[in-house]
């Protein structure tokens, strides 16, 4: 054991905690000559955050000194909240007034100590462990003395000072990215402009600023692009497919949106007496992207592809994602196939996971599949060779839906806006629509994901699972009370709620006017799905074991588990166990964070596009549904999923906000989630990315008929 490890052990045991340097040296019987080395060791342990030294010179572990590690969430008024890392110890956040920040900013990871006096939830920053921002996006301003970047992120409450000598050529008012170069105590952070995004009122500069603020990257390093192109240029040889199941003569189709370019899943289906043989064939991206290679490290850091109305930020370079890995029609492609024998009740009776090679028969779209199912003669003629299989798809899909319903799977009506640009660059947001063709792919992919996860779980291989924990007891109890207030029978146990409880409640209300509100509030009571190396099941799907296997082009967990699966298929169980045992935890944490960041960025960009779209519809009237209720007003959603805000002060009368019922209760009129309204588009706020509506009238049930 090294001297540093021995010293740390004394602190972890508590022997040296709370002692000064002199006391530590005396306890360890350190000679005068050795004191310099001891001080260097203590400084090193303090530098990496393992130890902390108080203003009075006492050393100790952060726990022994009562310090709280966490991340700061700032407020534009200059104060912040400390979000503790250890939620099991500290359930609530701590308030930190500006004077107690001691130079810390929004996003920084810090140690803080509690300040007792006025309240028991106040703290003071005592050490900044790492900075949350090294670059920040905002609007550049300058006067005769200096330049400043005003951050878009309002929680980052300090402007970035830019010396005039470094910005005299930069126009006032542009959107820009600043690199923070210094944090002088008691002064604004200093920095330099590293990228100009465009004019401050330019729509696409605003979109680019959102992308930059989430640290998302459009371009790949040149070395990564060259390696991807080298891999994509490889021809599939006899050696490549020697140990693969040959499925090139099997009828296999891909079904995607019209604008999809990275096709990573294909399906096949045939009838076996009273059973079905379903094949789900997934691009073998791991064949081209080797573990720990530069391509893999880049994919790991990105975690996921990110989709915006006018662009895609892919996880892998396009030479791979749109080229050799994409299951293009009529081209040989390397795949991993999950082939399942499914009975007439939707149960998988037998399955095999194999390395395979396929040749997609057709690249089909959701629209074309819907047309075939609706009997469109021209489309049926175009796809005569697979038409019967398409009808078989629909047959099995209905069986699987019934099976999942009996199992307790929760069918939430979650609407997602489809925002597009037409050929002329105009924003198009059609009304929300979901067809059976979408459900076909969804049901088949879910079944493959479950089948793969169950097999890997059964052999206890390190793995990345997709988990969805049951609702927190407090939220489940609030939802139960809300449902009861609507007059529904909700008697489930909040601490032991089951998927079936939620599904049963939802089904009991599906023909009632309260269904939309129940659906929304149920969704808000549930936790977010995430990745984990430990399987705890998937609450929403009522699935005991689930993973993401079907999209390795655009999701890192899928790529990761493909490698693990292939280790098993190649008989390298022990090697795979050793290689991936620790990595799956790392991949789960990174992928969950990347997914969260991508979803937030997509949401913000969609809100920007929605605001621009509605700016051209001022004064127009629409039917809408109340989607949110606050003490300040109502959120209302249009059929195309765009939301607008109706301020409380524009509603007639006085109101009481009842949060547990999502209700604004007035003396003459009340408003709750799910109520139907007639609204007018009044204004848009690009800065807040919000549309303001005014209420024309509340629509009574039956008024439309």
Give the amount of beta strand, in percent: 25-35%
Poorly predicted tracts of residues: none
Q: Profile the largest sheet.
A: 5 strands, antiparallel
Mean pLDDT equals 93
Report helical residue fraction.
25-40%
Side-by-side strand order of the widest sheet: 6-5-4-7-8
Distance between the termini: 82 Å
Label the structural class. alpha+beta
Rounded radius of gyration (Å): 29 Å
Tally the helices: what do you get? 17
The 3D shape can be described as globular
How many beta strands in the DSSP annotation?
34
Descriptive report:
This protein is an alpha+beta fold and 705 residues long. 31% of the residues lie in helices and 27% in strands. The strands form ten sheets. The chain has a five-stranded antiparallel sheet, with no helix packed on it. A five-stranded antiparallel sheet has the order 11-10-9-12-13. Strands 14-21-20-17-16 form a five-stranded mixed sheet, covered by helices on one side. The longest helix is centred in the last third of the chain and has 33 residues, at 583-615. It starts with a helix and ends in a 6-residue tail after the last strand.
Topology:
Elements: H1 3-13, E1 19-20, H2 21-27, H3 35-47, E2 52-53, E3 58-60, E4 67-74, E5 80-84, E6 94-96, E7 109-114, E8 123-130, E9 135-142, E10 146-151, E11 160-163, E12 174-182, E13 190-199, H4 203-213, H5 222-232, E14 245-247, E15 253-256, E16 265-272, E17 275-283, H6 294-302, E18 306-308, E19 311-313, H7 318-324, E20 332-342, E21 348-359, E22 362-365, H8 366-373, H9 377-382, H10 387-407, E23 420-421, E24 427-428, H11 436-458, E25 465-467, H12 473-485, H13 499-508, H14 515-525, E26 530-532, H15 556-569, H16 573-580, H17 583-615, E27 621-630, E28 633-637, E29 643-647, E30 655-658, E31 663-666, E32 670-672, E33 676-685, E34 690-699
Helix pairs in contact: 4-17, 5-7, 10-11, 12-14
């Amino acid at each position: 054991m090294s001297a540093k490890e021995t010293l740390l052990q004394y602190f972890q045991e508590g022997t040296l905690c709370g002692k000064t340097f002199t006391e530590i040296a005396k306890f360890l019987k350190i000679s005068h000559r050795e004191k310099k080395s001891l001080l260097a060791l203590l400084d090193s342990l303090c530098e990496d955050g393992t130890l902390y030294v108080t203003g009075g010179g006492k050393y100790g572990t952060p726990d022994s000194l009562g310090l709280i590690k966490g991340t700061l969430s700032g407020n534009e008024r200059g104060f912040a909240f400390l979000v503790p890392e250890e939620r099991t110890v500290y359930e609530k956040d701590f308030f930190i007034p500006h004077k107690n920040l001691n130079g810390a900013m929004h996003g920084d990871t810090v140690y803080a100590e509690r300040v007792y006096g006025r309240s028991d939830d106040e703290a003071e920053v005592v050490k900044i462990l790492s900075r949350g921002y090294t670059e920040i996006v905002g609007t550049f301003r300058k006067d005769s003395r200096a330049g400043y970047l005003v951050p878009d992120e309002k929680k980052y409450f300090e402007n970035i000072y830019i010396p005039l000598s470094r910005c005299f050529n930069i126009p006032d008012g542009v959107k820009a990215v600043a690199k923070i170069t210094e944090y002088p105590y008691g002064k604004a952070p200093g920095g330099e402009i590293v990228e100009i995004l465009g004019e401050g009122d330019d729509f696409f500069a605003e979109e680019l600023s959102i992308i930059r603020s989430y640290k998302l990257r459009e371009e790949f390093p040149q070395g990564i692009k060259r390696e991807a192109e080298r891999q994509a240029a490889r021809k599939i040889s006899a050696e490549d497919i020697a140990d693969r199941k040959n499925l090139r003569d099997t009828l296999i189709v891909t079904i995607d949106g019209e604008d999809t370019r990275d096709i990573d899943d294909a399906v096949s289906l045939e009838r076996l007496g009273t059973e079905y043989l379903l094949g789900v064939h997934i691009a073998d991206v791991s064949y081209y992207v080797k573990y720990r290679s530069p391509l893999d490290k880049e994919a790991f850091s990105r975690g996921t592809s990110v989709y915006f109305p006018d662009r895609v930020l892919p996880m892998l370079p396009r030479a791979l994602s749109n080229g050799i890995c994409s299951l293009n029609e009529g081209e040989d492609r390397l795949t991993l196939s999950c082939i399942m024998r499914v009975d007439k009740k939707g149960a998988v009776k037998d399955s095999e996971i194999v390395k395979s090679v396929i040749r997609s028969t057709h690249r089909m779209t959701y629209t074309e599949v819907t047309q075939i199912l609706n009997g469109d003669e021209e489309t049926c003629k175009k796809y005569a060779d697979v038409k019967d299989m398409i009808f078989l798809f629909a047959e099995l899909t209905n069986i699987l839906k019934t099976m999942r319903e009996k199992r307790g799977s929760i069918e939430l009506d979650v609407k997602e806006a489809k925002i597009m640009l037409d050929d002329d660059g105009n924003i198009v947001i059609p009304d929300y629509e979901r067809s059976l063709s979408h459900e076909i792919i969804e049901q088949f992919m879910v079944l493959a994901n479950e089948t793969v996860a169950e097999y890997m779980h059964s052999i206890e291989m390190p793995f990345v699972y997709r988990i969805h924990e049951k609702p927190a007891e407090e939220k489940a109890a609030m939802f139960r009370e809300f449902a009861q207030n609507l007059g529904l029978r909700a008697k489930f146990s909040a601490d032991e709620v089951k998927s079936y409880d939620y599904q049963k409640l939802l089904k009991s209300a599906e023909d009632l006017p309260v269904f939309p509100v129940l659906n929304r509030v149920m969704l808000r009571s549930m936790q977010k799905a995430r990745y984990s190396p430990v399987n705890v099941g998937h609450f929403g799907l009522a699935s005991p074991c689930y993973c993401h296997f079907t999209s390795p082009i655009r999701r890192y967990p899928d790529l990761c588990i493909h490698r693990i699966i292939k280790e098993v298929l190649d008989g390298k169980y022990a090697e795979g166990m050793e290689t991936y045992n620790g990595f799956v935890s790392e991949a789960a944490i990174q992928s969950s964070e990347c997914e969260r960041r991508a979803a937030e960025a997509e949401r913000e960009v969609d809100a920007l596009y929605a605001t621009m779209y509605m700016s051209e519809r001022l004064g127009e009237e629409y039917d809408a549904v109340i989607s949110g209720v606050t003490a300040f007003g109502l959120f209302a959603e249009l059929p195309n999923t765009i939301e607008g805000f109706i301020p409380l002060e524009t509603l007639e009368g006085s109101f009481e906000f009842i949060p547990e019922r999502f209700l604004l209760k007035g003396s003459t009129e009340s408003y709750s989630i799910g109520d139907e309204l007639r609204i007018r588009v009044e204004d848009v706020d690009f800065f807040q990315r919000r549309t303001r509506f005014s209420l024309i009238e509340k629509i009574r049930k039956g008024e439309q008929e």
